Structures are given as C-alpha cells and as structure tokens.
Amino acid sequence: MNNLRKRLEENQLAIGTHISFDDPAISEMMGYAGYDFLWIDEEHTPLGKQSIQNHIIAAKAAGTASIVRIPWNDQILAKSVLEMGPDGIIFPMVNTAEEAKEAIASCCYPPEGIRGFGPRRAVKYGFDDSIDYVKKNGDFLKILQIETAKAVANLNDIIKVKGIDAFIIGPCDLSLSLSLNVFGDNVDGSFLKTIATAIQKAKDAHIPIGVSMGSYSSEDMKFWIEQGVDFLSVGGDVSYLKQGAVDAIQNFKELS
Fold it and tell me: 203, 227 in Cβ contact below 8 A?
C-alpha cells in the first residue's frame, strides 16, 4: 500500500508537491525531503512518457507515492501512464457523472471498464501476478479533479460513480469559472461557498478530497486545512528553485 493511500485510509493529513522539470533526481530529492506523494504533471509541462516513468521510479526509490496528472480525461492518455505503475492518476476537468464514469472506466479492465491489457512496470515487468493485478484493477488511486462551478453543481451525481478514490480541487480554475475577478481569492464569498459545498459533499460520501495550490505558505496551507481537506499538493520544483534564487540574490544585495 502506498503511503498516500495509507494516510487517507487512516484519516491522516497528507502533503505532496508538484513536479514539472525533467530530471528524475528532483523526484528522488523531494521524496527524501519527506513528502507523502509527488504530483507528476503531464498537463501543463513538457514532460514526455519516458520522463514520467523515470520520475515514478525515482519516487519509488525515495519511498514516496507517485501521482500522475494526465493532460485530459482520455483513455488513450491514461493507458500508457497506468502501464508505468504509478501510485495514482489524476483526471483533470471532470465536470459530469458521465465524464467521471469515462475516467474510472479507463482505469479498469472489463467488465468493470475498458482498459486494454498490457501492463509493464505496473506488474514489475512480469515478476508480479498479472491475473491478480487484473482482478484488483491495479492498486492505484483514481483521483478526479474538481475545477469548475459545473463540477461542483454536478457533484451529487459524480460521487455516485463507483471506483472514485479521491477528489482534488483546482482552486485557480475553479475561481476563474466563477468570475474573472476572483482568481485565487480565498476571501471571495462565492468562492468560499463553492469550496465549502464541494468539501462537504465529498465528506458526506466518505471520499477524501484535497487541494492543489502553487503556494506553500503556512497561511495558505492553514486556510485549506481549516476548510477540511484531507491532503494538500503544494508548491513545486519551479517555485522552490525560483524562491531560492531570489533569496540568494536578496541576501547578496544586503551584504554588498
């Protein structure tokens, strides 16, 4: 059992971070830093398939869970990633129960789904029992991203779809879907009401719900923890490198 699933099942808050750069040493380092999971992002980065698999392997070596967000809710995009054996997969922009069904079906073999057989690393290159893997439909988290007001409005139907392991809120796109003037504003009334509704509905259905955010400040993390999320994906290699560089220059300027 991967450590993210374990923490969610034990109702323990979990923390992860986002991976955008190519070098798998980054994932290995972040794992050693103590993150419960790494969000390997294929949607908004130039990462290719081989790079994604290298990150998954590096995360495993460092003892942390690997979660891959694919670019779109598409069975073809999901298939090759699942064969790499990640600990979870994230489907972006899931807005309806039908789209949720399509995402889960992409992860499951018939008769439950439509996934074609051909695991590679997912069954340790044949050292694991492939039949057992098929029967269990893998042992990875199926996570749907809630990023629009439409998704929140349809959540009562979405949560009825069998096989969903978790939801994760995308606050930037969610705020944009409410109003162009609300982007990333945690104090806007309509935004607060929308996320409260989403979190409560997930809680009522006993489905863990998390948030993905670029910030890693204690203030922002505290805000989301107080809203009731079960896991947070914060910051990322881009922001950590940028801030470290900015801090070094500022320190130099203060001394020179």
Answer: no
| Count of domains forming the chain | 1
Helix intervals (H) in 34-148: 49-61, 75-83, 97-107, 130-136
| pLDDT tens-digit readout, 78-92 | 999 999 999 999 999
Please tell me the number of Cα atoms within 13 Å of 84 on its side-chain side: 27
Cα(252)–Cα(192) distance, integer angstroms:
41
- Measured in residues, the chain has a length of 256
3-state secondary structure of 86: coil
pLDDT grade, residue 234 (50/70/90)?
A: very high
User: Is 48 inside any structural domain?
Assistant: yes
pLDDT of residue 138: 87
**Count of CB atoms within 10 A of residue 88's CB?**
22
Q: Answer yes or no: is 183 within a domain.
A: no
